[in-house]
Amino acid sequence: MMARLLLFLSGRMIRELRCEDIFTGCAHVEHGPDIRTLFAQFMAHVREIHGITSPTPELRIQVMTAVREVHAHAE
Q1: According to the model, what pLDDT value does residue 39 have?
Q2: pTM to 2 decimals?
Q3: Where are the beta strands (DSSP E) in the chain?
Q4: What is the separation, in whole angstroms, between the first and last Cα of the chain?
């Protein structure tokens, strides 16, 4: 509990992508320290689960606009 409070107070932020924001009904949530890592992890999910092997520019834009910054959680 104390570690979580310290992370919150430190203001450490990570990036989050919720697949639901792009593919209705998919509850997958990805977290990453930066946009590149997050995008790579999320696109691996999109390939494996949604069968999209070659994302269109429109999908890339949707993904990039769906990125949120959230407080890091204590592991």
Answers
A1: 93
A2: 0.75
A3: 13-18, 29-32, 68-71
A4: 11
